[in-house]
Amino acid sequence: TREKDWWRGAVIYQIYPRSYQDSNGDGIGDLLGIVQRLPYIASLGVDAIWISPFFTSPMKDFGYDVSDYCDVDPMFGHLSDFDALIDTAHQYGVKVLIDLVLSHTSDQHPWFKESRSSHDNDKANWYVWADAKPDGTPPNNWLSIFGGSAWQWDAGRMQYFLHNFLTSQPDLNFHEPQVQAALLDVAEFWLQRGVDGFRLDTINFYTHDAELRDNPPLAPERRTAKTAPAVNPYNWQEHIYDKSRPENLVFLRKLRAVMEPHNAAAVGEVGDEQRGLEILGEYTKGNDLMHMCYAFELLSGDTPSPEYIKEVMDNVAEAAPDGWACWAYSNHDVVRHMTRWNLSPAGARAFTTLMMCLRGSACIYQGEELGLPEAELAFEDLQDPYGIQFWPDFKGRDGCRTPMVWERSNHHGGFSNSGQTWLPVSADHLPLAVAQSEEEPGALLHHYRRAIAFRHAHQALKTGEMVDMRVEDTCLIFTRKNDEEELFCAFNLSDQPATLETPKGDWYQVGSELNSASPMEDGKLHLGPWQPAIMLRE
Ligand code: TEU
Ligand code: CA
User: Fold this and answer.
1) At residue 70, what are phi and psi to the nearest 5 degrees?
2) 65 lines ligand 1 (CB under 6 A)
3) What is the pLDDT of residues 17-70, one digit of tens each?
């Protein structure tokens, strides 16, 4: 029996299976490797794991190009290994979310092979096919995120097909009812196998404009650093026809209905820099869409200032009053936040504690609990086609995908006993390996465990309201409360000390294990660099 609302305020640990633990010495992580490491995962105190795709795949986008939704790629193991993973995880009290990539398949999927074989086969309409313009050019101006036109010519059908990502990731046609039915069957297949929910890849790309209208150019005044990094022309268009279409919600309601009897939860990935948090509100509204949406606001850019975080939280409250965000600082697509934000150990601890105090759920990406920086890779080491395309201005996603480090002195950091691993283990990571961190009382790993435990000890942090947010000096201040408890949270997000007024009323310090400051007798709160103050109302 599963408690229906377990996902609210949950802490989710993201595993990139290629890089977690190799159990059979081929240099690539696998499902049995994850099983071996479950005691460690459980020791973090997380509620759930999200496993990036392990389905049958030619691995052009490292599993985000699926050729069989209902099987495990031999590289990662077998379905029986997955069953063992679910059983073991559940014995440890850890739930399992799998990563369904439903917007597109691999071009090696039998559906696509059939679809491209003729104009009148049973699946002819399962992908987005369109004729060339009279001059032979693509049907419209849509662009691929990974570079170039979103249309790829197929000499067999003498037509173009749509792909939002790689040319080997053709876009499924969600306007075709049979496609929707087949994808709902995929969800049912995994729910029957016992998964607790899904991370749903790129849900706002499911449907495209059936009339294939051109996207308008992005108005010059909207070309901010965030919406238009010079490196990718994708960002010069207003993406109103190729993604975030209203029809997506119709399919997501059906998917939610399939999940409901299983008490399963979904985290939807809705990346839309141009619409920001508004889209999170749209996709989590009510009780029949996504349970949570993954928020990108803390995944890019510079170290977030208290003002920026307040603005983001205000925007969520406004755009998604009954919605639910899932916060993350790092994942398998972005530069690790230790490097991106150039954090000191104290800064990393402060942001970890902050994440555990924010309203929403939280995703931790493997290795961030060790304080791993982005790995430096040479061009020759690159595996990610996105990085190879845009090198050196954009270095791609390999630097956050290098193998997890378990033991400093072990071959490949304990990740694998093969001769060569699919990406090299970073030498900079070895001193931070799990075994070394366990022995080192000051290691970030212990702080992650304490911060996660602290969140679990205070229900108000998981599901309570978040009110009275303000910025004072260099501090972000807010209150979390439910009917039982009220927590005052202040975070000094700076390497300089700060002084605040003590909140009115009777409060006592909690979270001393998180370096929370104690109220001073002069009625002021003195916060050291990167120090929080967390207090509980008497
Ligand atoms: O990423 C989607 C993705 O690239 C978006 O976040 C994108 O940056 C944004 O929408 C731009 O507007 C997911 C996976 O996380 C990634 O690893 C895959 O490569 C991709 O989908 C394709 O499946
Ligand atoms: Ca392996």
Assistant:
1) -110, 30
2) no
3) 999 999 999 999 999 999 999 999 999 999 999 999 999 999 999 999 999 999
CATH homologous superfamily, domain 465-537: Golgi alpha-mannosidase II (2.60.40.1180)
Q: What number does the ligand 1 atom closest to the CA of 101 have?
A: 23
For the chain, the distance separating the N- and C-terminal CA atoms, rounded to the nearest angstrom, is 35
Model ipTM value = 0.95
Q: Hey, which residues are catalytic here?
A: 201, 269
Tokens of 319: 């755009």
- pTM score over 0.95: yes
* Per-residue confidence (pLDDT) for residue 1, from 0 to 100: 33
Q: Three-class SS string for 233-260?
A: HHHHECCCCCCCCCHHHHHHHHHHHHHH
**Rounded Cα distance, 167 and 449, in Å:** 42
Give, for ligand 1, the residue of 165, 198, 283 to mutate: max count of ligand atoms closer than 8 Å to Cβ. Answer: 165
- Structure confidence by residue, pLDDT tens digits, 238-263: 999 999 999 999 999 999 999 999 99
Span 11-103+177-208+243-454 CATH architecture? Alpha-Beta Barrel (3.20)
